[in-house]
Specification:
Elements: H1 4-19, H2 22-25, H3 29-36, E1 41-50, E2 56-67, E3 73-79, H4 85-101, E4 108-113, H5 122-136, E5 145-149, H6 155-169, H7 192-208, E6 219-222, H8 227-238, E7 242-248, E8 251-254, H9 263-274, E9 288-291, E10 304-306, H10 316-324, E11 329-331, H11 340-353, E12 359-361, H12 363-366, H13 369-383, H14 389-414, H15 425-443
Parallel strand pairs: 3-4, 3-5, 6-7, 6-10, 10-11, 11-12
Antiparallel strand pairs: 1-2, 2-4, 7-8, 8-9
Length: 451
């Protein structure tokens, strides 16, 4: 059966590993690649529930437990009609290396169902979540597999699922992350992916400019309007940048020349998203709305692009448009936000334009802040403690700094850049994440021998 999303993620990793000196220095790691690309376990199940009219409904549920060499499986649950095994395998595969880059003890996994919450009542969502967790609870636990939220799984859904797990298992444990603050959740968790993305790019800007520049005065294009996009936008504004776009599946809002989104606008958009309404419902604004389009070709000259909606949201021609618009930094807030062709364009420009090039950061590094704070939530649950906003934010900032430095130094070691050329962050992230997981698997006997 064809698995296009998973095959894309696999080929993206392999292409950068093969273009590095990793296999030359460690040929035995080819066997590790073969082993790590097959999930340890794939669980598929049916979810039967009753809608408000008393009709029986059925959905397909999944959990891909991909790799546990570094810790319990960790990764989100996605509720969306497009959910299938290929998408969850791609997300779980990426999650292995993303979690490795946080420096925390977490394996990689992903799950969800092809349930569409749009148009469903709160009662129907509760019934679905209860039915879903009734089956999933047999396969997860605080030291086994710790799911989190993802698309269409926020605090409400996590609450319904956690309650059912607790009732079935007669245990209160940190089995899900993204919990409510008064029952085990962590401060900064909603903000973490967006904040972490901006912290990562801040290090890119600082490195590229020799410490002379920051987000201050930068024009930033953002796609998406969910959790990641909202908090990335707020952090950019806080750091002195101007956010010139947000989007949803139906179209894009583009700021007019000289203007940018305000925190008040983002608050209104967040309220719309909670009600599952489109950006077209936003009232009293002066932005240009472009139906059926992503922002990349419509934002004009920008300094930074942060795709934060979904996979494959930057195509090759959109990548070329961003390069032509003078964009200097692009980092994925979404998972696999750029197509392989787009990445190839960014990397080719990086190689041929040295210090004047666009510099690309992959999601497995740039958006690792979300799962990093999920890991911090697990630590707080284990200790029965709650850290302050300042403590969690400082730990998040430190993790993103270490992640950037790891990607940078690994790129310099295994993919030596030419004089004046930015190191390849995508190759650095892939090699650093893969090496850490492969070494742990070898120590535990998941693969052995020499090339």
């Amino acid at each position: 059966m064809a698995e296009p999303e998973f095959e894309q993620a696999y080929k993206e990793l392999v292409s950068t590993l093969e273009s590095s000196t990793l296999f030359e220095k460690n040929p035995e790691y080819k066997k590790a690649l073969e082993v790590v690309s097959i999930p340890e376990r794939v669980i598929q199940f049916r979810v039967v529930w009753e809608d408000d009219s008393g009709k029986c409904q059925v959905n397909k549920g999944y959990r891909v437990q991909f790799n546990s060499a570094l810790g319990p499986y960790k990764g989100g649950l996605r509720l969306h009609p497009t959910v299938n095994l290929s998408i969850l395998k791609f997300l779980g595969f990426e999650q292995i290396f993303k979690n490795a880059l946080t420096g925390l003890n977490m394996g990689g996994g992903k799950g969800g169902a092809d349930f569409d919450p749009k148009g469903r009542s709160d009662n129907e969502i509760r019934k679905f979540c209860v039915a879903f967790m009734t089956e999933l609870s047999k396969h997860i636990g605080a030291d086994t597999d710790v799911p989190a939220g993802d698309i269409n799984v926020g605090g409400r859904e996590i609450g319904y699922m956690f309650g059912q797990y607790r009732r079935l298992r007669n245990q209160w444990e940190g089995v899900l992350t993204g919990k409510g603050l008064n029952w085990g959740g962590s401060l900064i968790r909603p903000e973490a992916t967006g904040y972490g993305l901006v912290y990562y790019v801040e290090h890119m800007i600082n490195y590229a400019s020799g410490g002379k520049e920051s987000f201050s005065g930068k024009k930033v294009a953002i796609s998406g309007s969910g959790n990641v996009a909202q908090y990335a936008a707020l952090k950019v504004i806080e750091l002195g940048g101007t956010v010139v776009s947000l989007s949803d599946s139906k179209g894009s809002l583009i700021a007019t020349e000289g203007k940018g989104f305000t925190p008040e606008d983002i608050s209104k958009i967040a309220a719309l998203k909670l009600k599952r309404e489109a950006l077209t419902a936003l009232e009293g604004h002066s932005y240009n709305y472009i139906e059926g389009a992503r922002p990349w070709k419509h934002v004009g000259n920008v300094d930074v692009a942060l795709p934060s909606a979904t996979q494959n949201e930057v195509s090759q021609d959109e990548a070329e448009a961003l390069i032509a618009a003078g964009c200097k930094f692009i980092a994925e807030g979404s998972n696999m936000g750029c197509t392989q062709e787009a990445i190839d364009s960014f990397e080719a420009h990086r190689k041929s334009n040295q210090g004047n090039a666009i510099w690309y950061a992959p999601g497995k590094a740039a958006n690792a802040g979300g799962v990093a704070v999920s890991g911090l939530e697990m630590a707080q649950n284990s200790q029965r403690l709650s850290w302050t906003t300042e403590e969690v934010d400082a730990k998040l900032a430190g993790i993103m700094k270490d992640c950037f430095e790891n990607c940078l130094q690994t790129a310099k070691e295994y993919i030596t850049p030419a004089e004046g050329e930015f190191p390849s962050l995508v190759a650095g992230a892939n090699v650093a994440g893969f090496k850490k997981v492969a070494a742990a698997m070898h120590d535990q006997g998941d693969w052995w021998g020499t090339a």
